[in-house]
Amino acid sequence: MFITDAIVENKTELENQIFLLKLYSPEISRNIKPGQFINIRASENNFPLLRRPFSVCDVEGDYFFVMFKIYGEGTLYISRKQNGEKINVLGPLGNGFNLNDNSKTALLVAGGMGSAPFSFLTKIFSDKKEIHTFIGGRSSHDVIQYGLKNIYISTDDGSLGFKGNVIELLKNKINNFDKSELKIFACGPTPMLKALKEFALNEKIECEVSTECGMACGFGICQGCPIQSANDENKFLLVCKDGPVFNVKDIII
Amino acid sequence: MFITDAIVENKTELENQIFLLKLYSPEISRNIKPGQFINIRASENNFPLLRRPFSVCDVEGDYFFVMFKIYGEGTLYISRKQNGEKINVLGPLGNGFNLNDNSKTALLVAGGMGSAPFSFLTKIFSDKKEIHTFIGGRSSHDVIQYGLKNIYISTDDGSLGFKGNVIELLKNKINNFDKSELKIFACGPTPMLKALKEFALNEKIECEVSTECGMACGFGICQGCPIQSANDENKFLLVCKDGPVFNVKDIII
Amino acid sequence: MKNLSVKIGDLVFRNPILLASGTVGYGNEISEFTDLNKIGGIVTKSLSLKPRKGNPPPRVVETASGMLNAIGLANVGVEEFAKNKIPYLKKYDTHLICNIAASSVEEYVECTKILTGEEKISAFEINVSCPNVKDGGLEFGNNLSAVAKITESVKAVTNKPIIIKLSPNVAKISEFAKVVKDSGGDAVSAINTLVGTAFNIRTRKPKLFNVRGGLSGPAIKPVALAKVLEIRSKVDIPIIGIGGITSWQDVIEFMIVGATAVQLGTINFINPKASELMIKELEQFLIEENFNNISELIGSYII
Amino acid sequence: MKNLSVKIGDLVFRNPILLASGTVGYGNEISEFTDLNKIGGIVTKSLSLKPRKGNPPPRVVETASGMLNAIGLANVGVEEFAKNKIPYLKKYDTHLICNIAASSVEEYVECTKILTGEEKISAFEINVSCPNVKDGGLEFGNNLSAVAKITESVKAVTNKPIIIKLSPNVAKISEFAKVVKDSGGDAVSAINTLVGTAFNIRTRKPKLFNVRGGLSGPAIKPVALAKVLEIRSKVDIPIIGIGGITSWQDVIEFMIVGATAVQLGTINFINPKASELMIKELEQFLIEENFNNISELIGSYII
Ligand SMILES: Cc1cc2nc3c(=O)[nH]c(=O)nc-3n(C[C@H](O)[C@H](O)[C@H](O)COP(=O)(O)OP(=O)(O)OC[C@H]3O[C@@H](n4cnc5c(N)ncnc54)[C@H](O)[C@@H]3O)c2cc1C
Ligand SMILES: Cc1cc2nc3c(=O)[nH]c(=O)nc-3n(C[C@H](O)[C@H](O)[C@H](O)COP(=O)(O)OP(=O)(O)OC[C@H]3O[C@@H](n4cnc5c(N)ncnc54)[C@H](O)[C@@H]3O)c2cc1C
Ligand SMILES: Cc1cc2nc3c(=O)[nH]c(=O)nc-3n(C[C@H](O)[C@H](O)[C@H](O)COP(=O)(O)O)c2cc1C
Ligand SMILES: Cc1cc2nc3c(=O)[nH]c(=O)nc-3n(C[C@H](O)[C@H](O)[C@H](O)COP(=O)(O)O)c2cc1C
Ligand code: FES
Ligand code: FES
């Protein structure tokens, strides 16, 4: 883990209020893995006080990318950073996706900003597996395709792709794939992960999900981010340290 | 009084950590008088929470100027504003210098950033009076001559002008002037104003001083900025509303 | 049209937004920014029997998302107030609540007696909690029987509603609210400032002449909300919520945990238009969330 | 070379900077950022007799310059701590202070008994003030005779120093410090978190599962300083100052008002290197202000 000032190399507004930041930091870029996250200090002062967690979206040499949506004060401040400015980051944090399984096909399933970690995962998997990506959003403006491939889209309002949610879309398409060789990697809002867990367990498809939780520290010292273990009723796991990526079997969503 | 977003037209660093901001705001510029001040919101959020008071330094048409030194968080933030950015200001506030007296010669006496209000005063007095300006600073870097004329300088370390404080310098030079036609206008730290008051009363020279005090509101609603009245033992005056400019006779410094 | 009005006893406020004691003087300066006719009411600076000069400077200092004040109850006194301040306030169609501070039960009673005849005054808010006066302030606010005595005695000399402004510097604020209710008080205001201090590390002197001051502003909002919630869940008395409100969202949050109305304090120093600006947004919220009356929000928390 | 060491009873700390309970777990994660050998000591997460699972999420929420937490004393329990956490901490030459939370006097005593044999433990900090546990926490912290009883009983079963961590949610914290002293306690820690809450205005639900939580961070610093000052001016007992410290200046400020040492809490989440970084700056301050020993600062306020 490092605490370091990353330097803004570039900022792109991908959609209204959705930004892609390219940040220079050899420490982070050379050590972070898909599904891990970093914790960003949005300002130097007490406002906002706590760091804000973001998945690593992609890595290119000494640069890493963060993709985010303006949500509240913290993301608003981060969105205002200019090229050349420093952003204090802490990371790499948590456990990323399992990169060593032997499935042949990866289905990446994203809800909204849940597509953020998948550019990097796509890059890493590209020469090992076949990849298909399912993205769901409320409307076409929520569907970010940056760095993804073989994309299937669903929108709640039908403004792009299948009208409905992304798990429905996945169910519709699942027979196109050979289930025995599949593995699902997912990231998105809790209701989506919940539906996905049920589906994956029913269909007996291996499935890893990246979860979210309000956090204070991001590296295991505050106990602020519990998630119920599926294996031990008396145990909470920590999203920041034991996750954010879990095998769906291990957690209660 | 207005609450308005002034727009940064230009920013100059006059000396290390001392800035001159040119701000566009017709409301403020057309209504403010020398010695009055404005209260600036340094950020949009809770940090810093309170506004910060600054004298108006000069006015040109729809533009007004603020000259300030980086002191703490508030001034630091203000110093980072870029051209075109908005700064929320509240003003004009307080009572400025008396512009209608019939003295023939004005001696402006400034300690450190106390020279801020005198550019504007100099402009207004220029066609009415003879003006001589005494500026004291710790070193040459604290002596800001922007918009001033007929300048006498003192520095504590002797790096520029007379070695000593500005009141000593004033005492040395006072006999160059016809006391019956003089009036002193001063702004600076409390010890300077204290020494000046004694001097002015002894020499029977009319003297107005601009005072400072920690403030919460700047316009009379918090009672945060008392200064002892010299005329009524049981009375505090308010620096923000009854001042910041007072006749030295009216206050206990 | 959504209905923003709320009621405390028989008093109807056109909306739940009042301006807090000590943060708007006697209304004249703030009226340059906010149309007092548009808000629910205004609470005066604490008034005492005789004029008070207040503490020497420094009286205010900023802290993280907050400020400390030790004004020392500087005020013109009840008589001067009646003579020279009420006439100005009469111009406004808004509720005038007179805040009274005193150092004895007798003084509270006398102040109330002197002012109760003033038609313009809608209610009294009794400050038993100002932490800045050595001769009583804090003591009363920490003493259940003193609060009972003050409430009863003041009630006895006026027909106007009595609101007791509670100190947060106690272990169980709901016990005080209960005593107010049992003694005939009509409502409670919560909270006054938290006791705090700050020192200059070079001079090693306090940043306030009075050493200790009262902490206000956004920093204290979570504490204020918890106090309001505590009162609401234990005592059936109208609550005026105060503490760190800066936005219309904060107003709603206070109402949800149990406030019938709110007061804005420190925000007036930063944005004296804030109160008026919030009103439109409150209405918008009611539309979005499908409420007809803002009063439906009071204590509407879901736990 | 300036002397940064401070003493509490016979314990000598190499500098006044300790890490606060609940904000550094059991030391392993934070040691990746801060060299524990360089700081005065580390206080463990509150330990209870049996492991505690803690509250369901959400457990933390940010507020203005602060945060609310309602972790619910999630901890591994004293036995697991002794077996699996102390060995790691033994690697560090720093004081280990064990914080204990319990729901009965007997449980406090039992926890202390179990751990007192551990050589690595320098002292116990008794948490009588955690506001998050329904079965006792807040009650003890608000009850003078309970605090006396706990202090005495725990003292009776250990030779190690006993530090009582006081609740700020009381009217007069100095009364509690006095009781601690009179009952044989060696020091007090002040303060634990203030009770606060926050609600989501759309769902009208609390932002913490537990509804109420503890407020920490810069927002509470003025309150914490006032509590330390109150204790210092009334009771002769060493004080460990806690609350909103984010900079070396804050450390000095706490010492000036009377703290012998300090604990850093919330700042560890934001900058886990903070404690180590402050040490150099403290030394620089002593040079600039011409002190030889940092202990000269303790209670050095000039009023
Ligand atoms: C492991 C992890 C990875 C994430 N990756 C991304 C990403 O790649 N892109 C992206 O846009 N967002 C991501 N998020 C969500 C992102 O952290 C929040 O949107 C952000 O913290 C909101 O901060 P704010 O100040 O703008 O909002 P505010 O509303 O001001 O934040 C309020 C508080 O709520 C917490 N919070 C708010 N929303 C969330 C959320 N969805 N999840 C967790 N905490 C939240 C924040 O920590 C903060 O303390 C991630 C969250 C986690 C836990
Ligand atoms: C009427 C008036 C006119 C002023 N005009 C100028 C000017 O033209 N140029 C200029 O450089 N400065 C001026 N000042 C001082 C200026 O307001 C302070 O330097 C500024 O508030 C410091 O804020 P900060 O956040 O940088 O410092 P911080 O240390 O963070 O401020 C801490 C607090 O102390 C108060 N404070 C700090 N220093 C002063 C001070 N000297 N006077 C009053 N309050 C203070 C601030 O209000 C703030 O609440 C003026 C002050 C007053 C009262
Ligand atoms: C400068 C100042 C002066 C105050 N004076 C009084 C007072 O005279 N009487 C009183 O009851 N409360 C007084 N208060 C407390 C406020 O009315 C209010 O209870 C408190 O500030 C919390 O609200 P806020 O956080 O919105 O400011 C004062 C507060 C401030 C900041
Ligand atoms: C997430 C969190 C967990 C805490 N857990 C404990 C605890 O278990 N026992 C305890 O005595 N104090 C606990 N505290 C209180 C801190 O030790 C400290 O007293 C408080 O946070 C104030 O200091 P700060 O403002 O520097 O954070 C906790 C604080 C936080 C923020
Ligand atoms: S966020 Fe602190 S332990 Fe997970
Ligand atoms: S600063 Fe508020 S009254 Fe002067």
List keywords for this structure.
heterotetramer, A: 253 residues, alpha/beta, Elongation Factor Tu (Ef-tu), domain 3, Rossmann fold, 2 domains, seven-stranded antiparallel beta sheet, seven-stranded mixed beta sheet, 17% helix, globular, C: 303 residues, TIM Barrel, eight-stranded parallel beta barrel, four-stranded antiparallel beta sheet, 9 helices, 14 strands, 19% strand, binds flavin-adenine dinucleotide, binds flavin mononucleotide, binds FE2/S2 (inorganic) cluster
Mean pLDDT of chain A: 95
**DSSP strand (E) fraction of chain A?**
35-45%
Helix-strand sequence of chain A: EEHEEEEHEEHEEEHEHEEEE
| Oligomer kind | heterotetramer
**CATH architecture annotation of the largest domain in chain A:** 3-Layer(aba) Sandwich
Which helices and strands, and how do they pair?
The complex is a heterotetramer, with 2 copies of chain A (253 residues) and 2 copies of chain C (303 residues).
Chain A lengths: L1 E14 L2 E7 L1 H6 L5 E5 L10 E4 L2 E3 L2 E7 L3 H7 L6 E8 L11 E7 L6 H8 L4 E8 L13 E5 L6 E2 L2 H8 L8 E6 L2 H14 L2 E5 L15 E3 L7 E3 L6 E3 L6
Parallel strand pairs in A: 8-9, 8-12, 9-10, 10-11, 12-13
Antiparallel strand pairs in A: 1-2, 1-7, 2-6, 3-4, 3-7, 5-6, 13-16, 14-15
Chain C lengths: L5 E3 L2 E3 L3 E3 L21 E3 L16 E4 L2 E4 L8 H12 L5 E6 L4 H12 L4 E7 L9 H5 L2 H13 L5 E4 L7 H10 L4 E4 L3 E4 L14 E5 L4 H14 L4 E4 L5 H9 L4 E4 L2 H4 L3 H15 L15
Parallel strand pairs in C: 3-4, 3-14, 4-7, 7-8, 8-9, 9-10, 10-13, 13-14
Antiparallel strand pairs in C: 1-2, 5-6, 6-12, 11-12
The structure holds flavin-adenine dinucleotide (2 copies), flavin mononucleotide (2 copies) and FE2/S2 (inorganic) cluster (2 copies).
One flavin mononucleotide (FMN) sits at the interface of chains D and A.
